[in-house]
Each structure stands twice: as structure tokens, then as C-alpha cells.
Amino acid sequence: MSTRYPRIASLKGVAALRARCAELGVDLPCDDDALAAPASPLAQPVALGPMRGREAVSPNRFAIHPMEGWDATGDGEATDLTLRRWRHFGRSGAGLVWGGEAAAVTPEGRANPNQLMITEATAGSVGLLRRALLEAARDAGNDEPVVGLQLTHSGRWARRPAPESGRGAKGAPAPRIAYRHPVLDRRVGVADDTPVLADDEVDDLIAAFARAARLAREEGFDFVDLKHCHGYLLHEFLSARDRSGSFGGETLDARLHLTFRMIDAVRSAAPGLGIGVRLSVFDRPPHRPDGRDADGRPGPGVAEPTPLPYRCGFGVDPNDPGRSDFGEPIALVRRLVAHGVRLINVTGGSPYYVPHVQRPALFPPSDGYAPPEDPLAGVARLLAAARTVKAAVPDALVVSTGWSYLQEFVPHVAQACVRAGWCDLVGLGRMVLSYPELPADVLAGRPLERKLICRTFSDCTTAPRNGMVSGCFPLDPFYRSRPEREALEEIKRNP
Prior knowledge:
This protein is of the alpha/beta class. The protein is 33% helix and 11% strand.
């Protein structure tokens, strides 16, 4: 597949990266040399606050982002594939594991029929993941990381269980919505008579999150993440201006009612458990491909027409929704910190309707579109968002995102950003699927293994979107040898 933008791997050295950033007009700090521990800013510990009766400390500035798995059982329990991924997180050397992956709090809240779930029936299986991760960390000689669990309800992106297996076994959409959306209702298949989630159902949801948090505490997790990002349910409530009742309305206070009710419920159910929030601090209107290229592949993404002012965004200028407005997100972070929730994982957009914003890459997933911008611009936007939040709320402990596309330059840019105070921790997602030990190698001053570096081919998204298990099919020999790879290549040839 051809691309309009130079591959970042073609930039030979830091000077070339700086030149390309200058050409694009983006600000991306980058150090000439990546330092090893103990001199590196990335090797410095950071206190995360009280968790389970102690002051939790990340031994370094690397974090592992939660990722949505597609390899649990139909009942939401971990499998050998799930355990393998969590063991890799332990081997990584990262000081903070932000949830490992998204765990649904109810069966109807899963984004796929094989997503991990935490309920009374599955809690022991989820706890096994944590124990396996810590054992792997010890076996690798790494410092013990702080480990959380991301709690989620997929809302608009929820799916029913699928009895079949293989390609297409992704379950039928079963959206639960906070309000009606002029574009996404049509895209997800929300019928005209689909009910908006009622206030009493939201009360039940709060109870489900609190119950899941209690179970996580009992299984030894240090904290839980209340997932407010990427278009999932709690994120959608942040923009519920056109919702009536107790959990929506014009004012930010009205739209934050659910968030703070949930925090208080979690604290009551699981005293001493830490709380974090992964937050999409900006969004964009849904995008679609602009036609097809000469090879018949989707063209670059363009914004779908939406009514103005755009009332469905959080962190968006309603009169110009292609621009960010951080007023409300910063107000939310300030309120979270004042409420004792300091751990904020800053992200943006959604992988479902603006993948180029949430996950910068040259190669789109099979249901996506070609990038409408150099992915370096997307990386710079995400890092700038973390910088904006940290500057506005210095007491927040900010985890940044958007790193994988930087590839060989991750150590140089991450070191510079942490030194400059843009963020407190550097969060890696896709990169550790192909290269689990990257944080450990950076901290030890070892050269990066080029053959393991994620090149953002998006197979880890395309495979599950087509009913296959999660993993890095291009670079991980384990997944490369699985039978799904042939089917995946066919999907990429004929999306």
C-alpha cells in the first residue's frame, strides 16, 4: 500500500526527525542521546499516591496502556492467550501497568464476545492475570510494578455474544446509548426506537462498577481505572448535552454527576483502592473514507457532515469541531484532583470513528481509512494534549499516549518530554505487543531490536474487528504461525 507521507523508519537519525517536524510545523522535543538508568529521566521513580494502605511508587516512568483483548472465554474468563499477554507486560520492565486490558463490568457492556469481564464468577481468573504478571516481572529481574485494572462499559460499541467462531464471529451490535448522535446512530445501527439508557439503569451501572472495584481490590489490584475515553459509555456521558434527567444537560456539572457518583461508590465499596481515569480530553467528529484510491483501497479520512454547533463532542470547539477546546476537560481534571483522583491517563478521540486521532498510523485497519495527515502530526497532538493538562493541573499525575508510531525515536522523545515536564509517565500500547521488553531495554541502555519494533500495520486492530484473537501477527512469531494469519492477509488484500 502506498502512502502520501514518508515512513518514520526512513528518517535517519534525530536531526532528520527534527527536520520533518519543522516541515510539518509541529512541536516534538527530542534528545540527541537516550540515557540509561540511573541518569535517564525515564528511570526516575514517581509517587502515585496512597493505594491499599501504602504509598504506591512506580519505579520508573514507563506505563503499559490497557488494550481491549479478544481472547477471553465467552464467559469473560482469561485464557492461555490472555495470560501470555499479561506475562509480557510483567517482562516489560514498566513501572505502572494501567489495567492490562479493558475488563467489562457487565455481560452487556462488552465490546466483543470474548472480552475479559470481572464479575463474581470471573474475578478469580482476573486475579490470576495479576499474579502471573508479577511473577513474570520477578523472573525477569524487574522492579515490582504498580498494577491496576481498567473497568469499562462499551455503551454504543457493545456487542452480543456470538455462538460461532472464526472470521465474522464478532457478535451483533447491541448499543446502549447515553443520547442520540446524528452520525453514530446510523453508523452503529441504532434504530429510531432504541431507548436511551434510563436513569435507573445508570444507577445500576454505578453499582456494577462499584462491585467490580470491590472484586479487583479483593484480587490484589492496586487501583482501578474508570474508563472515560474512546467513545465508550462513560466518555459519551461527558458530552450528553441533549440528555434529560439526572445525568446530562447543558452544564458541565450536570454531565459530571455520573463520574463523581461512581467515584464515591467505588470508594465506599473498595476502601483504600486507588482510582485513575483514562480520559479522552479532546475528540473529533466521526470520519469516513473519501472514496477509494487507484488500488481500490479506502481514501483518506474526511469528517462526516454534522450540524453546527456540534453538541456531541467533549474537548471540541462546537463551532469548529476540527479544533480542540480544553476548557471542560481541564475543569474536569481539576475537579478529579480536588476529589483525590490524581492519576490521569490522557488520550483523545476514538478507534471506531477517528482512528487516525486516537492511534496515529500509516496503515489503517481494514474498516478504517487512509490517514488524512502525517501520523507525526497526530503524535504531536496527543503529546501536546498531555502537556496542556499537566501545565494547567500540575498536581495531576499525567500518563501520555501516542508513542508507538515514533518507533526508534520513542526513547529520545519520551526522555525529552518527561524532562520538560510534559507528562509524568510514558504510556505504551501496541508497541509492547510486538516488543514487550522495550522499556527494560531503554532503561538498561541497550540498543533497540529493530525487528521487534511496532510499525503500526494495524493488524492488531484488523484481526479482532474480524472476529480473530488479539496479537501482533506481523512481528510476533507466536501469532505469525497461527492459522488466523492467512485469513488476515486475505482480509487486508480484499477489505
